[in-house]
Design brief:
With 240 residues, the chain is of the alpha/beta class. It is 37% helix and 25% strand. A 6-stranded mixed β-sheet has the order 6-7-8-3-9-10, sandwiched between helices. Strands 2-1-4-5 form a 4-stranded antiparallel β-sheet, covered by helices on one side. Strand 4 and strand 5 form a beta hairpin. Bound molecules: adenosine-5'-triphosphate and magnesium ion (MG). InterPro entries: AAA+_ATPase, ABC_transporter-like_ATP-bd, BCAA_Transport_ATP-bd_LivF, P-loop_NTPase.
């Protein structure tokens, strides 16, 4: 497994766990998606994995290295990158300045990696001198992904990268995530666009109230009547 978490108990305040005995296993080279209602603990799980929330019990491993309780600044060294749900770019800086910040530890590789990122995301290259805040929502997410890629991670955790985007832009961002797996990167994704995410992902975990609910191959859950009723139906009702 690229990533596994077992028996995770974690929260923001001592003795008030948000996650109770949560476990996930993310196969290498997969897109694994976590879905669940608002407040389910999806972001908390990502933050527990990335050392931003204290883990009081359980074990997290990345490529069989124990990373439980890792400091966020040690993540890149472990080959893990994190794209947060909010504030994942610096809007008042230019695209180039954002990428320079992400590449600050790349050493002699810096220029090469910058060119690689521009080649992968041509709209970012074109707008390199513009403020990141002026980008479209989709392009901002691509910038956030580019910043995550700067450290050449083997695992990227993305928290709702398609939130607030048009269906087309959301699809592009999800397809970008899928494309990264073709280069051997493993993706763990939190998503609210359940149908789109299930169509694209390999595996899915459903969390609710800080606990594991259902998990399995994404294609199976897409056809599962219970999942359909709770998640796909609910989404349609909200959208209408
Ligand atoms: N910084 C915080 N301090 C205290 N409690 C928090 C904090 N952040 C989140 N929580 C609580 O933890 C629970 C889980 O929140 P979390 O953000 O993990 O949910 P989520 O599944 O990511 O929801 P959403 O779909 O809205 O992003 C919620 O009850 C929330 O109020
Ligand atoms: Mg969240």
């Amino acid at each position: 497994m690229a990533l596994s978490a077992e028996g995770i108990i974690a929260g923001y305040v001592p003795d008030l766990p948000i996650l109770t005995d949560v476990g996930i296993a993310v196969p290498r080279g997969s897109v694994t998606v976590i879905i669940g209602p608002n407040g389910a603990g999806k972001s908390t799980l990502i933050k527990a994995i990335t050392g931003l929330v204290k883990v009081s019990a359980g074990r997290i491993t990345h490529e069989s290295a124990d990373i439980t309780g890792i400091r966020p600044d040690q993540l890149a060294g472990q080959g893990v990158a994190y794209v947060p749900q909010m504030d994942n770019i610096f809007r008042t800086l230019t695209i180039r300045q954002n990428l320079d910040l992400a590449l600050r530890n790349a050493g002699p590789d810096t220029a090469l990696r910058l060119e690689e990122l521009y080649a992968r995301f041509p709209p970012l290259a074109e707008k390199r001198h513009e403020k990141a805040g002026a980008l479209s929502g989709g392009q901002r997410q691509f910038l956030a992904v580019a910043m995550a890629l700067a450290s050449r991670p083997s695992l990227i955790l993305m928290d709702e990268p398609s939130a607030g985007l048009s269906p087309k832009a959301a699809q592009e961002v999800l397809e970008c995530a899928r494309g990264l797996t073709e280069q051997g990167v493993t993706i763990l994704l939190v998503e609210q666009n359940v149908k789109q995410a299930l169509r694209l992902a390999d595996h899915c975990y459903i969390l609710a109230e800080g606990r594991n609910q259902i998990d399995g191959p994404a294609a199976d859950l897409l056809c599962d009547p219970v999942v359909g009723e709770i998640y796909l139906g609910a989404k349609r009702a909200r959208a209408s």
